Amino acid sequence: MHRDIIIVGLNHRTAPIEVRERVAVEESLVPAALRTIRNLRSVHESAVLSTCNRVEVVAATSDRDSAFAEVKKFLLDQEQAGETVTDQHLYAYAGGEAVRHLFRVAASLDSMVVGEPQILGQLKTYYTAAQEAGSIGAILHRLFHRSFSVAKRVRTETGIASRAVSIGSVAVELAKRIFDRLQDKTVMLIGAGKMGHLVARQLKRGGVSSLMVTNRTFETAVQAAAEFEGNPIRFEEFHRYLKLADLVVGCAAAPDFLLRREAVEETLRERKHEAMFFIDLAERRNFDPRINSLANVYLYDIDDLQAVAQENLNGRAGEVDKAERIVDEEVESFLGWLDSLEQVPTIVALKERLEAIRRSEMEKSLRTSLKGMSEKERRAIEDMTSAMIGKILHGPISRLKKPLDEEEEALYVDALRKLFGLDEK
Amino acid sequence: MNEILLFKGTALIYLLATGAFFLYLVLLKDVYARVAPFILLVGFAVHTAALGGQIAHNGFPAVTDLREALSVYSWLVVGIYLLVQLKYRLTVLGCFVAPLAFLMALAGLAVGPGGELPPGLKTSWLYIHVTLAFLGNAVFALAFAVSLMYLVQESRLKSKRMTALYKLLPSLERLDRLNYIFLVWGFPLMTLGIVTGSLWAGVYWGAYWSWDPRYIASVITWLLYATLLQGRITAGWRGKRAATLTIVGFVVVLGYFLWGDAVFPSRHTGNFE
C-alpha cells in the first residue's frame, strides 16, 4: 500500500472572490463536510480549510487519482457552487507538492498578503475541527503539526512576518494616505466578520479613537462595541449614522449590497464632501463597486488590499527566498518520514517471518531431539536463537532505515519481500 | 559687482539643492530629506544677501525688469516654501520648488539688466503693489504644486496602482488643507495687489482700469480663485475639484507672465510711456 497526501482546492490566485465564496465551508459546517469526505472511498484521512482566500481539502489516500476525482467532485457539488465553480478554478497537488503547498500555506507564503499571521491560527482551528470530527489519522496529524512548526521557523528565522503586511496594515497605510491623522476620524464597522474585526482593531491601533459598530443582531453589535470601546448602532439605523463615519468597514454576510452609490452620494452631500474610505472585507461584497467612482470616496475590497500588499512585498523578495528554502528542507524531512512508513511494514513482516521460523523449529526440536531438556537449558536455547535472528537482521534493517533514494529503497524492499516470501500467506 | 557673484552663487546652490531633492525622490533616503531643504536654506540666505546688496546699491526693490522680477519671485517662493517646510514637513514640495528656483535664477542671469526706473514710477505704491502681487503669486505657485501632488496621489488611490511615489506624497487631507491655506493667504494678497496696482495706475496714468491684457488675465484669475474660495467655504468644494481649479488659475497667470507680454503688448511691463 502506498501512502499519499493530496490537496484539492482553490485560492485567490485561481478564483475570484465571487467563486471562492460559493464553495466556502463555514466553521460550523466543517463536521458535516468532513463526514461527506470521509465517506469517499479513496480517502483515509481528511481536513478542510476555508478562509476568505482559500478553500482546500487535504486528504491522505492510497489512490491519488481516485482521490483527486472524488474530492474535486465534492467541491464542485457544494450546494452553492452551481455552474459558477468549474474545474479550472481548482488546483490539485499530491505527494511532495501537496506537502510543500500546505507548508507554504501555514508559513503564509501562499497568502497574497505574504507574511500575514492570521492564516496559521485559521489552519489550527480547522485542524482541531477535523480532529474533533475524527477524520485525522497518523499521517495528517504529523503533516499538520510539521506545518505548524514550519510556520514557526519561518516566522523566527526570516523577516517575512516582522513587517507583516496584513490586510489590516495595508488598510491602515491607505487610510493614512487619504487622511492626515486617524486620531480625529470615526470608523463604522458593519457586520461581525472576522476580517472586519481584525481591520477595525488595527485601525484602532493606528490611532482611530471613535468607532461605531452595527450588526443585524444588535446583541452582537453591543458585544463588539464593548470590545472596541465603541458605540453600538441598530442595523436598521446605520444609514442615518453613515455621515459621521470617515472609514466604513464592511464585513457582513449579506446577499446584496448594503450600500449603493446613490446612498453614498447622499451621505457625501450631508458631509460636505469630506473624504470617505470604504473597506469591503465581506465574502460577498457589501458595497457597490460604483462607489469608487464618486469624488472624494475611495473603495477597496479585499482583493485590492491584497494587491497593494503584494506590491509592498516586492522589495522583500530576499526574505521570501529564505522562507522557501526552509520549506524545501522541511518538505524533504517530512517525505523522509512518509517514506519510512513504507519500510516499516516490510521490516516488521521480516521480523515476524523469521520469528515464526524460529518458533516452529524450536517446537519441532523440543518435541524430538531436544526432548527432556531442563527449563533452564530450554530458555538458554530460546535466548540464543533469538539473538541469532537479531544479529542476522541487524545488518539489513539498519541498511533499510538509512535514508535511501527512492529507487534503491524500492529495490531493497521489493527484494526482501520476494526473497523471504513476505507477501505469501 | 559683488551682487552678480552672489546671484551666480545662488543659482549654483539652488542647483545643488535640486540635485539633493532629486536624489531624495529617487532613493527615498531620509538623509537627503534632511540635507536638501538645508541646502535650499543656504541658497536662500545667499539670495537674500544678493538682493539686499542690490537694494543697497540701487535703492529700491528691483522688480522693474524681467531679470529682477524672476529673482525676487524665486526668492519669495523659496522663502514661503521654507516656512511651509518648517511647519508641515513637506519635503516633497521642495522637489518642485528647488528646480523652479534654479531655473528662475538661471533665467535671471541670462536676461540682461533693465534700464533705470523712470523717476515718476518711484512711488511707494509701486513697492506695495509689487510686493503684494509677487507674494500672492508665489503663494499660488506653491498652491499649484500641492494641487498637482493632490491629483497624482488621488489618481494613485483611485486606480489602486501604488508606486513608490504614493509613499512619498503626503496624505490627500494634508494636501487639500494646504491648498486651502495657500488659497486663504494668496487670495487677499492677490486682491490687495490688484487694488494697489489699480490705484497706482490711477495715480500714474489717471485711469484705474484699462482693457489691458494683463489686467484682464489678473481679473480672470481673481474671479477663478474667488469662486474657488467661496465654493470651499460654503459648498464644501474640496479635493480634486479644488486642485483642478487652482491649477487652471495658476496656469492662466503663468501663461500670461511668460507669453502674454509677447503676444499682447501691454504697457504694464517695460513699457512705461
Entry keywords:
A: alpha/beta; Beta Polymerase, domain 2; 3 domains; six-stranded parallel β-sheet; B: about 270 residues; mainly alpha
CA distance, first residue to last residue of chain B = 30 Å
Radius of gyration of chain B: 19 Å
- CATH-defined fold name of the largest domain in chain A: Beta Polymerase, domain 2
Radius of gyration of chain A: 29 Å
Structural class of chain B: mainly alpha
Report the portion of residues of chain A in β strands. Answer: 5-15%
* Order of strands in the sheet with most strands of chain A: 7-6-5-8-9-10
Give helix and strand order of chain B, one letter per element, not per position: HHHHHHHHH
Please tell me the overall pLDDT of chain A. 86
Please describe what this structure looks like:
The complex is a heterodimer of chains A (425) and B (273). Chain A has 425 residues and is an alpha/beta fold. Chain A is 54% helix and 13% strand. In chain A, the strands form 2 sheets. In chain A, strands 7-6-5-8-9-10 form a 6-stranded parallel β-sheet. A 4-stranded antiparallel β-sheet of chain A has the order 2-3-1-4, with helices on both faces. In chain A, helix 4 (95-106) packs across helix 6, helix 7 crosses helix 8 (194-205) and helix 13 (317-367) packs antiparallel against helix 14 (375-401). Chain A starts with a strand and ends in a 6-residue tail after the last helix. Chain B is built from 9 helices and no strands. The two termini of chain B are 30 Å apart. The model of chain B has no long low-confidence stretch (mean pLDDT 81). The interface between A and B is medium-sized, with 21 and 20 residues.
